[in-house]
From TrEMBL:
Transmembrane segments: 12-35, 73-96, 108-126
UniProt keyword list: Membrane, Transmembrane, Transmembrane helix
Name the record gives this protein: Signal peptidase I
Pfam families on file: DUF5684
InterPro entries given in the database record: DUF5684
Amino acid sequence: MNDMQEPVIDIAAVLVPMLTVWAVLAVYAIAAYVLSAVFLSKIFAKTGAAAWPAWVPVYNSWRMLELGGQPGWLALLVLVPVGNIVAAVFLVIAAYRIGLGFGKSGAWAVLYFFVPLVWGALVAYGNTAPWRPTSATASGV
């Protein structure tokens, strides 16, 4: 006779914490998306472009790349493995050029790289010079 019992795993004890973590992460992701869309729509409006593309995934990056003087199709690289790194580099370059268009220094590209939501808030609602596209960004508008 075997007196050893098999351990009983309580499924709820495993699933509830895991689902709680995923729910919190989903709320943060949705909040970050909404904030970035609000900031981008304000930035687009300040440049004279339509504000609605800020709410469309991938197309908002397309428009941002175009405002920064880059070809918009580079935004599609986020769908390709390793291509997303290339797209991120070009988005930082676009943020640098957009910052220049608003009279900001090149250090703002570093801010965009590390905390893009703060960059978006400061460019969208902070004190900026009127939009003056540089020669590189003029073709994108």
